[in-house]
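Posting for a labmate who doesn't have an account.
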Amino acid sequence: MNHAPSPSARTPPGGRVRQLLVATAIVRLPVTVFSVLFVIQGEPFGLTAAGTAILLFSAGSAISGLVAGWLLTRHPHRLVLAVSGVITIGLLLALGLAELGVVAFWAGALLLGIAFPATHISARSTYPVLTHGPKLLRTYSWDVSLVQVSWIVAPALMIVISPLVGVRGIYAILTAIVAIGLAWYLVAFPAAEFAAAMRRGDTTPLPAARAWASVFTEPRIGVYVITVACIMFVSGLVLPVILHAVDVPQLQALAVSIWSVGSTIASVVVNRDGIRRRRLVFGVLIAMTVAVLPVATGSGLLFDVALLALGFAMSPLTGAVFFESSRAFASRLQPIVFGIVTSSQLVAQGVGSTISGAVIDSTGQYLPIAGLFFVVLGVLVALVTVNPWRAFGSTTS
């Protein structure tokens, strides 16, 4: 008996890659909105309560990265994502419609972080099934770019739309976005090709302890975790500075957008013909040099230029980490690897924001933050230059 092929099976691999990229970007768009939304929703409880909700969401997301990564190695991706999607939609409706006390508000933020569909982890471990070589690197570069696009869209969504529809309206919009994006992802997911790729390798499920041990006995995982942690720690340092230095919400959104535009363009352009470590190092050194100018002069215009340069330097490094991670680990371990990398990003950003906010609140000075900024970027330069265990490819690149 003949069966018609599924829609995803009829789509060429390149088309499915694009669908996974766009669907993942849609599903993950609300994540960039929550930090602002929780501040608005938590205002009646005070800014400390709102900040606690953001911290709990970040903690939940970090837990999710680890748990989802492991679950995706044990169960079908579609099943894991569909279950988490149903839970997430229920939580969004509860947070948007119910009259919540502060404890329930915090619990909702934490659970939302834990349950939110990990399409980014699924997609990053699936791209190698559909493409390889230079095309795979371009795919990871676009993955990073589309995440940055959400940082351009999210502030506009909150600043322009929230006064018109209120918190409940924003939650309704976010619920629809998650439902549409996740449905698209589940339809586009190349289940047949993924299963075939797993059959070609060693697909015996590993016990949890052995799976995690297999990842951590590979020394390059430490390089990748430190690299993305440094990148997101710097992001965490900078965000409170933007909010403190710029009083007008529209200008805050513009500053974040300038930063994101640099990241969006650079991720695709810098790695267009392969990973070139000299190019990555040069980008970070330029960002460090340009960042000296607003620190020295206090110029708002130069601050925007520094943000653009910083975005241009950071995102190609993230794309390089994703690409090299996909080559360093077996297919069955990649969801765990990308889960670890994602959790490291979230924790590092949260720590950076906490330190930066505490310094600004206690001293009102940016100089200690600038010192940390340059130290961490120096660590990044050293990592890429030394290239331990050839984590970033050939030592001659």
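Reply:
Got it, the structure tokens are right above this. The chain is about 85% helix and 0% strand.
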